[in-house]
Amino acid sequence: MSSEPQTASAGQRLEPAAIIELLKPITWFPPMWAFICGVVSGWGSAEPDWRLIVAGVMLAGPLVCGTSQAVNDWFDRDVDAINEPQRPIPSGRLPRHWGLTVAVTWTALSLVIASMLGPWVFIAAIFGLYLAWIYSAPPLRLKRNGWWGNSAVAICYEGLPWFTGAALVTAALPDWRVLVLALLYSYGAHGIMTLNDFKSMEGDKLTGLRSIPVQLGADRAARLACLMMLQPQVLVVLLLGLWGHPVHAAIIAVSVLMQIRLMQHLIANPREMAPWYNATGVSLYVLGMLVSAFAIQSGNLM
Fold first, then answer.
1. pTM of the predicted structure, to 2 decimals
2. What does the DSSP 8-state code read for residue 26?
3. Fewer beta carbons within 10 angstroms: which end of the chain, N or C?
4. What pLDDT shows up at residue 14?
């Protein structure tokens, strides 16, 4: 029996709702938030063009992130047939090959929009789209190993959008402190990606995807994820103190202490508590991103 998931007949009417579901709007928030953090961190004395900022938000979320979701669903359709059979492609609600068509079309559209927002934004978009494709597509298919796959997603969700937002408002290579923060929060996002892998452990095992929970087991993977989320935030606290922003550093320090408390519940039962921690501890993590961005902004204005 073929492993190809069920597909709709050639004459089936295409449902726009299926395309929107394919692009997974719920996943757009992290890169859009990181982009806003980049805008805040790079904000100088000049008033930015809000039309460009709106275009940048659309680029980070619906376009580049949407592209990554379409690419992933197309090349991951066999895995989704096990983990999420209700998805548009394995359920047959999206006509045959439309998943790939959307992925290619969104890639081209992303590049067109990025080319209008400046050279640094265009370069970042090219790199982000490249990671989106090699994450899911053979022969590299980075998602086969959680170490590489989570790194690619973390960079695309946090570091690149942050860089893009700062580059857009400065129309130049962002300040080195902006780059440091973007890298640190990208590192921590690797742990967040590990939390997202707990829900698909069975399907990953059956299809040979070596996610971090599959490789280490749920307990060890949860401890690693917590460590990777905490390490960069501690460094951010220290750096903000050194850069002369003790109030911002103190706010993030309190957030870290709260996260440590929440992590105790996560580690006790990681497979069941991962969604809960995403709604609580990860929310504190991303709020800290914005706090640090404001610190850098105030530093630029001094």
1. 0.91
2. G
3. N
4. 66
